[in-house]
TrEMBL record, chain A:
It is a multi-pass membrane protein. PANTHER family: CYTOCHROME BD UBIQUINOL OXIDASE SUBUNIT 1, CYTOCHROME D UBIQUINOL OXIDASE. GO terms for molecular function: electron transfer activity; heme binding; metal ion binding; oxidoreductase activity, acting on diphenols and related substances as donors, oxygen as acceptor. Keywords: Cell membrane, Electron transport, Heme, Iron, Membrane, Metal-binding, Transmembrane, Transmembrane helix, Transport. Pfam families: Cyt_bd_oxida_I. The chain crosses the membrane at residues 20-41, 53-71, 91-115, 127-150, 185-204, 216-234, 346-368, 380-401, 437-459. This is Cytochrome d ubiquinol oxidase subunit I. Belongs to the cytochrome ubiquinol oxidase subunit 1 family. It is found in: Cell membrane. The lineage of its organism: Bacteria, Bacillati, Actinomycetota, Actinomycetes, Pseudonocardiales. It comes from the Bacteria.
UniProtKB/TrEMBL annotation, chain B:
GO terms for biological process: aerobic electron transport chain. Belongs to the cytochrome ubiquinol oxidase subunit 2 family. GO terms for molecular function: electron transfer activity; metal ion binding; oxidoreductase activity, acting on diphenols and related substances as donors, oxygen as acceptor. It holds the Pfam family Cyt_bd_oxida_II. This is Cytochrome d ubiquinol oxidase subunit II. Keywords: Cell membrane, Electron transport, Heme, Iron, Membrane, Metal-binding, Transmembrane, Transmembrane helix, Transport. One of its GO terms (cellular component) is plasma membrane. The chain crosses the membrane at residues 6-34, 55-74, 80-100, 112-139, 159-180, 192-209, 215-233, 240-263, 283-305. PANTHER family: CYTOCHROME BD-I UBIQUINOL OXIDASE SUBUNIT 2 (PTHR43141:SF5), CYTOCHROME BD2 SUBUNIT II (PTHR43141). It is found in: Cell membrane. The keyword Metal-binding applies.
């Protein structure tokens, strides 16, 4: 394999993996801060136990999110140095801000929260929980601003062949990030909600100690899940409209829409190979005019198909890659403007599908446990635990869709922005050897695999341990309340 | 403005080397100073609340380099690809190890994480030293800022001395920190180990400084000797402060001699990267200056507060029985 493919696989694997931990961290840390607030305000021990239990699981997951995040920051320079040089004037700023504004707060106050139970006044300790939870959200904002700039470059002029930042404000208020941020945060809450519901259902089924804790957690999870799904739908719809304006090819690829339609129908499910050029022969269940609505809020908008978009892209951004030895096999070759259709088409559907299943399960769970009932069948905890996977899958497929859907670009041209600001993924990669990238790919994948097993094992252990497993033990005088 | 950011990045590296320097050292010395599980737990708990905050200095140093000098960031990180891969793996292992070590009450489990902490701390600190000495001493890079030649180009005699320099410093610094933060037998042991190891462990740092700046290295030697003298006199706090002064002087010497370069080319001086040919635009630097002007003092205040909250020495009797 060439350096480009290896570096792309590495970025994909490490990022999808990192983003398994991140949404759980964001969603759960805010919910735990909420639980602790309820305890401090009411003095009800139930909330204290909830804080301790979910806080413990949060910390196990947090550690993994932190260490896998370090890789991300180095990776741009290591494997994508041409990209880093090209966009450095713009892209580095939100990354550095993320460090100064978010990571310092997050790591410092997390340390205070873990070790400060007996050292800090109750309210100060609670403030630490809010500080690190809000910092995780701030961190998401900055990194999404950076990513949104790649999808829709704003706030720049072209200067000596590189984009030069002219307005950080424009980057931070890019309409792409204003839609992506609520979508991502809602996705994070959906993950945390399913986590609460699944584990609490299992404990209710087992009739574990502290029924009130599990009942409360389940109720909290189901409601958060339902609200998150509503927020996901609204923000997702907004994103769809932006995509229609900003990245028409991604829109067409999401539907594997070969030819322009007016009104355009939305494909629910396809039988057959959606790959080009076979896409014309695919049998697909469609909802008439729905795609027009998703794109532009009316049932009559024309949505351009791939075959019509390709010549437009060729005209605007060139037909051939430049002749440059650094492009390897692609040097001087025609540019393929169509993303991988099976990935985008199914990625989009799996995102929506798993998201909907997750929300449906939440509502079903809420109904099952109405008036403090607990179904006795084994299927009840099984459904809850299986449900935990669904929002994780929806998140992953959503990101895979949006990142694969912008190929062959790494920086997508902004149709109404400054001309000349775009970059092909093939031009972005470092001048590394395949051996180097293969080494890091293997090393990181191996370490990540081992850690996945370890994290799963630890979470399972603490879930099984229930409340008694997380409460501090009575200890001798002078001993610390918590120690590693 | 470029000079200001060069200085700020040096300060971020200083913060990183000073702070994570001691938590690396604690990890490196875990089996040497911690003879029993309880003693090892004492050591881990001296850094438990703070090591993650210390590591963010690295994240911000690298992030600030990306924002202020993208050309430097791109060239250094891609050229030092393999050492950085090793570095990342070490940081990952070590990072989860602190948190996961105590989560299962089983000697084999603890043993595995102890090995991870020790190996991770050694490898990570060697890699940091290699990275810093590489950027100071230079690499074979071409006009485009790309490395020419072997993937092992960053491994040379002088950069390996640089790697050992920071490992040796972290070792002694970690022992002094342990002496400062613990009580009882472990504290005595830490003091003895620091004093015994210092003449050998600190030698590579002095050698690196001599390579880079000649006689200026003498300045650091004086501070290091003073640090060991105060430690011998049972004044852990003063010794720790002097160790901080030593790394500050070292960073000043290394980055001072580098300026205005950021990554010299060992092939052709015209290809060397400097603050001028790698810097971001004045507007970007201005934005970042505002962020740093408000952010950094706040960081110093709340990180300082954390150290104050956890200021008490820890001994074996503070460690809760099982967990």
């Amino acid at each position: 394999m060439e350096v480009l493919e290896l570096a792309r696989w590495q970025f994909g694997i490490t990022t999808v993996y990192h983003f398994l931990m991140v949404p759980l961290t964001i969603g759960l840390s805010l919910l735990v801060a909420g639980m602790q607030t309820a305890w401090v305000r009411t003095g009800d021990e139930r909330y204290y136990k909830m804080t301790k239990f979910w806080g413990k699981l949060l910390l196990i997951n947090f550690a993994m999110g932190v260490v896998t995040g370090i890789v991300q920051e180095f990776q741009f320079g290591m494997a994508w140095s041409a990209y880093s040089r090209f966009v450095g004037d713009v892209f580095g700023a939100p990354l550095a801000m993320e460090g100064i504004v978010a990571f310092f707060v997050e790591s410092t106050f997390l340390g205070l929260w873990i070790f400060g139970w007996d050292k800090l006044p109750k309210k100060v300790h609670l403030a630490c929980a809010w500080a690190f939870s809000l910092a995780t959200m701030a961190s998401a904002y900055f990194i999404l601003a950076a990513n949104s700039w790649m999808q829709h470059p704003v706030g720049i002029v072209m200067d000596e062949g590189r984009p030069r930042l002219t307005s950080i404000w424009a980057v931070l208020t890019n309409n792409t990030v204003l839609a992506a941020f609520p979508h991502t945060i809602a996705g994070a809450f959906a993950v945390a909600a399913a986590f609460l519901v699944g584990i609490a259902a299992w404990h209710l089924h087992r009739k574990s100690e502290e029924e009130r804790v599990w009942r409360g957690s389940l109720k909290l999870g189901t409601w958060v899940g339902v609200v998150a799904f509503a927020a996901l739908s609204i923000s997702g719809d907004l994103q769809g409209k932006l995509m229609f304006e900003q990245q028409p090819m991604k829109m067409a690829a999401a539907e594997a829409l070969c030819h322009t339609e007016q009104p355009a129908s939305f494909s629910v499910f396809a039988v057959g190979d959606v790959r080009r050029p076979d896409c014309e022969n695919v049998k697909s269940i469609t909802v008439p005019a729905l795609l027009s609505f998703l794109a532009h809020n009316d049932f009559d908008t024309e949505v351009k198909g791939i075959e019509e978009l390709v010549p437009l892209y060729q005209e605007r951004y060139g037909e051939f890659y430049p002749v440059d030895e650094r492009l390897g096999e692609l040097s001087g070759q025609p540019i393929d403007y169509v993303p991988s259709l099976p990935v985008t088409y199914w990625g989009f559907r799996f995102m929506i599908g798993f998201g909907a299943v997750s929300a449906g399960l939440g509502v079903f769970m809420l109904w099952l446990t109405r008036k403090n009932r607990t179904p006795t069948g084994w299927w009840f905890p099984a459904l809850g635990l299986a449900g935990i996977a669904t929002p994780f899958l929806a998140n992953s497929f959503g990101w895979i869709f949006t990142e694969m859907g912008r190929q062959p670009f790494v920086v997508v041209p902004n149709p109404s922005g400054v001309d000349g600001v775009w970059m092909f993924t093939a031009q972005a990669v470092s001048n590394s050897t395949a051996g180097e990238v293969l080494t890091s790919l293997i090393a990181l994948t191996a370490v990540y695999s081992v850690l996945a097993v370890v994290e799963f094992y630890l979470i399972r252990k603490y879930v099984r341990g229930g409340i008694p497993g997380v409460l501090p033990q009575k200890s001798d005088d002078g001993a610390l309340a918590f120690a590693y | 403005m470029e000079t200001l950011w060069f200085v700020l990045i040096a300060v971020l590296w200083l913060g990183y080397l000073f702070l994570e320097g001691f938590d690396f050292g604690v990890g490196m010395l875990l089996p040497v100073l911690g003879r029993s599980n309880a003693e090892r737990r004492v050591m881990i708990n001296t850094i438990g609340p703070v090591w993650d905050g210390n590591e963010v200095w690295l994240i911000v140093a690298i992030g600030a380099t990306f924002a202020a000098f993208p050309g430097w960031y791109a060239a250094l990180l891609s050229a030092a690809y393999l050492p950085l891969t090793l570095f990342l793996v070490a940081l990952i292992g070590r990072g989860v190890a602190f948190d996961y070590r105590g989560k299962v009450d089983n000697p084999r489990w603890r043993k595995a994480w102890d090995v991870t902490i020790v190996a991770g701390s050694w490898v990570a600190t060697l890699c940091v030293g290699l990275l810093i000495s590489t950027t100071v001493l230079g690499l074979p890079i071409d006009a485009n800022g790309d490395r020419v030649g072997s993937v092992f180009a960053a491994f040379r005699l002088d950069t390996i001395i640089g790697a050992l320099a920071f490992a040796g410093y972290a070792l002694v610094h970690g022992a002094v920190f342990t002496a400062l933060k613990t009580e009882g037998e472990i504290r005595e042991r830490a003091r003895r180990v620091a004093l015994m190891a210092a003449p050998v462990a600190l030698l590579p740092l002095v050698a690196l400084l001599a390579i880079v700046a000649g006689l200026w290295a003498g300045l650091v030697v004086v501070v290091l000797v003073a640090a060991m003298w105060r430690l011998a006199a049972d004044r852990d706090g003063q010794s720790f402060a002097l160790m901080g002064l030593a790394i500050a002087a070292s960073v000043v010497i290394l980055f001072g001699s580098l300026y205005p370069y950021v990554l010299p080319s060992t092939l052709n001086d015209a290809w060397s990267l400097t603050i001028a040919n790698t810097a971001s635009s004045p507007y970007t630097l201005q934005v970042m200056t505002w962020v740093a002007a408000f952010g950094t003092p706040a960081v110093l205040v709340y990180q300082g507060w954390t150290y104050w909250v956890f200021r008490k020495r820890i001994g074996v009797h503070h460690i809760p029985a099982a967990h």
